[in-house]
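Note on ligand handling. Small-molecule inputs were canonicalized before submission; formal charges were left as drawn, and no protonation-state enumeration was performed. Where a ligand contained multiple stereocentres, the stereochemistry in the source SMILES was retained. For zinc ion, this procedure yielded the string shown in the input block below.
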Amino acid sequence: MAEQYPKQIAVFCDECGTDEVHDYMVSEDDDQETRLGYARKYLAEEKGWLIQDNLDLCPECSFC
Ligand SMILES: [Zn+2]
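Structure output:
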């Protein structure tokens, strides 16, 4: 079982460039893409971000 620890991850809006930074529990086995996936999933579910395959939009931009 890989060790888990909190890591600060930033997601940037592709439209306006604003970023949202939170601590996420990651595993030492996770690669960078997997870790970013945790952050994007959280923002989509909890913060109203629009997250698509190659597009991250903050709540303000996603309503445009
Ligand atoms: Zn934005």
